Amino acid sequence: MAYQSIDELQTLLSQEVFGDRQDSKKAAGRALGTFIETIMFYLLRQWGENDSIAIERPLAEYGREEITHNVEFTLHPVLSVHSSFEIPKSTPTTARKIADKIQLPSTFDLTSNKVINKGIIQNACVIGSDEQSIVIAAPDQITSSGTTMHTYILDKHAYAMIECKRVGKEGDAKGPQTIEKAKQGAYVAKTTSSLQKVRNDQGGLDGIYYVNGEAFVGPYDQLLNEIIFNGEPQQLRNFTLSIGVVSNHGNWFTSGNQNKEMKVLAQSYDWLLFLTDDGLAEFIIELLRSPQPEYSVIHDAFIASYPPSDGRKANNSFTKKKMEQAAHFALDSYFAANLDRIENWFNVISPDGGTLQDLKRILVTLKNKDWRAIL
Fold first, then answer.
1. Which of 189, 250, 292, 374 has its CA 20 to 30 A from that of 78?
2. Which residues on neighbouring strands pair with residue 142, listed in sequence order?
């Protein structure tokens, strides 16, 4: 790593980008959290989940649908995809314009979202929904006459959810909210899937799920694999794989040096990934501090999102949800060209012995289920 620690990079960002803020290091820390979410979004796109992703959608608790939790990303069954079409240059590109273009049935309630507005893309932009599904629009490329994009309809059921957790750190002091964030993540992971975790009298984890009121109990890992790879429709119908991503220079430690917070998360998520300091540092250095010319638009989008705090309103164009359009396509290019190296930015904390390739295979398996028959 070119710098001694992420803490050093956070300090540099606080000086170079947020130097005029009252608490510049805290502002830089919030930006680090944005980077983690951005990395996960563009990684999921490279894993073939680009037409399954929704951002910050409410995820219902199993058996209590009136209680929902917004999570960073959810992955949903694809019900249909409209082939690519072009929207002529126009600002903004509204949900209504796209709905008219694809002749979306009037049974869908349209949103007020703008897929592209003043050169900023809203990633995984929901343009409409009905009781069972959501309609999302995604740009494909910029042309001289406009933007080509496509739409896809997703079932509201999520077959996987991804949450990102990071807590700030000053010097050697642990962030005061570390355990609270761990407990929040653990609660959501444990309550949103039909396959539930139960601690047995040996300290291990059993799983329990119900079919027509009948309970089925067994070792959790065994039931998890059974449902994913051989599950019957009644087993998959309310199943949601939980994936946590943590990154923190000191608070969460590593796979070989877990503290209480990490252990809480590792026993709660089906998969827990740790984004290493080296990985986060490479992202910051290569794209935001010393980018190659083809990636300079990424740096520019980041800097433009944080103007001097002199009263000017920021037009944030560097988040998982909103990205300057040239930076969006440049990030796709960077992740495609460096995918193997980027995957090595992560450690798998749980399950024991799991690899990132195993997780990719699981997500592909879930994505390719015959969800129309299941749901």
1. 189
2. 147
Q: Pairing mode, if any, of strands 73-75 and 53-55?
A: antiparallel
DSSP sequence for 249-307: SSSSEETTEE-HHHHHHHTTSSEEEEE-HHHHHHHHIIIIIS--GGGHHHHHHHHHTS-
Q: How far is CA 323 from CA 60, 149, 298, in A?
A: 28, 16, 9
Amino acid, res. 28? A
Two tokens at 364? 């592909």
Task: Provide the terminal-to-terminal Cα distance of the chain, rounded to the nearest Å.
Answer: 47
Pairing of the two strands 109-110 and 196-199: unpaired
Q: For residue range 104-154, list pLDDT tens digits in order.
A: 999 999 999 999 988 899 999 999 999 999 999 999 988 888 889 999 999
Yes or no: say if 362 and 241 are a contact pair by the CB < 8 Å rule: yes
Residue 304: the pLDDT is 83
Give the DSSP per-residue string, 208-265.
EEEETTEEEEEEHHHHHHHHHHH--HHHHTT--EEEEEE--SSSSEETTEE-HHHHHH
Tokens matching residue 66: 């009136």
CA 58 to chain centre: 14
**3-state class (DSSP) for residue 91:** coil
What pLDDT does 3 receive?
A: 47
Amino acid at 147: T
Query: Helices (H), strands (E): how many in the chain?
Result: 13, 24
> How far, CA to CA in Å, does 24 sit from each of 14, 15, 17, 250?
5, 7, 8, 20
- Pairing mode of beta strands 78-88, 146-155: antiparallel
Closest CA to 137 of 106, 105, 115, 110: 115
Torsional class of 118: left (φ above 0), alpha (ψ -120 to 50), beta (otherwise)? left
Which residues of the chain, if any, have pLDDT below 50? 1-4, 170-172, 176
Q: Could you tell me how far CA 59 lies from the centroid of its own chain?
A: 13
Q: Give the H/E segment covering residue 160.
A: strand 160-165
